[in-house]
Amino acid sequence: MSVEVITTISPTTNEPILTRNGVSAAELEDLPRLAAETFKTWRGTSLTDRQIIIRKFLKLLGDKKDELAEELTVQMGRPIAYTGVEVTTAIKRAEYLVKISEDALKDTEGEHEKGFKRFIRKVPVGPVLIIFPWNYPYLTLINSLIPALLSGNTVILKPSPQTPTIVEQVSKLFAEAGLPAGVVQYFHCGSPLMIESLVRNPAVSHVCFTGSVAGGLAVQKTAADRIVNVGLELGGKDPAYVRGDVDIEWAAAEIVDGSIFNSGQSCCAIERVYVDEQIYDSFIKAAQKVLIGYKVGDPLSKETHIGPVISKRSKETIEAHIKDALDKGARDATPENPTFSNLPPKGNFVKPTLLVDVNHRMTVMTEETFGPVISVMKVKSDEEAVSLMNDSEFGLTASIWTKDTDKGYQLAEQVEAGTVFVNRADFPSPASLLCSQLTGASSFVSANVILRILPGPAGRIQAKA
Question: What is the largest distance, in Å, between two alpha-carbon atoms of the chain?
Fold first, then answer.
């Protein structure tokens, strides 16, 4: 049986830029076998030794930031002005995980009773399969990889075919940092059946998946054939509520950025905006003013703010959502901008689009668009806004914009999302590691154990006064 050849298509030109051989059936059997064998020794290393190796790796990663940034821009299309920031932020997040690891992994003392010694000891689970996406590959990988290694687990990495070099770079740098062979392995694959066979492999003790809802549900369904923990971080339809007391121009600038940064291709992008009717018109004008300053174009130019979306299929989906909204009564309020009306002839470019007078009958307000679209709906009260924010099967992040931060905290308690921001859009804080999945629950490998988190309506609040 021939091995599949995986081709990476440039979102900027729609031309092939990379090819990789997919994993063979024999190699797929060897990966978990070696991971399980290596786990026997890696789990016995001290936390101090693991921390030293990871810190060396992070230093090497930072030294290659510019090279890694260019690779990301070429492969997934985010403008070069921002891809290096992802690498830097991933390093900061990993450093935070190293910092808290000793406290997180120490024994938890139990109830004292004469003649007894009770404690909970956190132990590694074994080989961990990490499947991660193309849109923020370093950040999403770090979320699972670093806790797994600190905890004494071995890992098998499966990248998106769109960004295949990530695992190659990570594996190489970990080897340079002194990580024993077999602790981190990777494979390239475009076949769902091959991935399913690895999820079913009894040597795999935990699965971490970050990606689409459909992909996550497929992994969960496959894993249901046996007893294995699965952590899913899936899609979002994240709402923002702008109260009437807000600084309008500031909020508009932040929300536009939160909506269309990375061409809107973030699970935590703002996809629904609810604005108090008293400032609705002023907010729209302010958003238009902000959009005039954006530049769509070649992602390798440092002047570019918005690059292409990832694929032709993605472009078609975004444009279909916009058409559905317009057909149902929404208006396109996007301002004139020469880079919006003269998009590059090649590639999957979509102009940033400001839609007004939207409602929940429109696909753009109910299904994940994953594109540079700002959909704005008028509301009459806090109660109406919260009700609309919660009118979704998604529950990833949400944001509330107000000068009255105490009121913002109160409203956050009513919003059904894993993370609720007050006066911030999605912010990649080192501590922001928990995101809620489609059902409002998430699990992840962190601090050496499989933690099962069932967040309340406001699992985490970040505020900016």
Answer: 78
**Which position among 71, 86, 233, 367 bears the catalytic label?**
233
Fold observed for domain 9-233: Aldehyde Dehydrogenase; Chain A, domain 1 (3.40.605)
* Catalytic (active site) residue 383: no
**What are the structural domain ranges in the chain?**
9-233, 238-436+456-463
Handedness of CA 85, 87, 88, 91 (dihedral sign): positive
* Architecture of domain 238-436+456-463 in this structure: 3-Layer(aba) Sandwich (3.40)
Q: Supply the DSSP string of 384-400, one letter for each residue.
A: HHHHHHTSSS--SEEEE
Instruction: Report DSSP state, residue 296.
Output: B
- Tell which residue, 252, 256, 266, has the closest CA to residue 371: 266
- Note down pLDDT in tens along the chain; length 465 residues: 568 999 999 999 999 999 999 999 999 999 999 999 999 999 999 999 999 999 999 999 999 999 999 999 999 999 999 999 999 999 999 999 999 999 999 999 999 999 999 999 999 999 999 999 999 999 999 999 999 999 999 999 999 999 999 999 999 999 999 999 999 999 999 999 999 999 999 999 999 999 999 999 999 999 999 999 999 999 999 999 999 999 999 999 999 999 999 999 999 999 999 999 999 999 999 999 999 999 999 999 999 999 999 999 999 999 999 999 999 999 999 999 999 999 999 999 999 999 999 999 999 999 999 999 999 999 999 999 999 999 999 989 999 999 999 999 999 999 999 999 999 987 655 444 433 222 222 223 333 332 322 222 333 344 443
- Residue 435 bears catalytic tag: no
Answering whether pTM is above 0.85, one says yes
- Annotated catalytic residue within 189, 208, 267, 268: 267
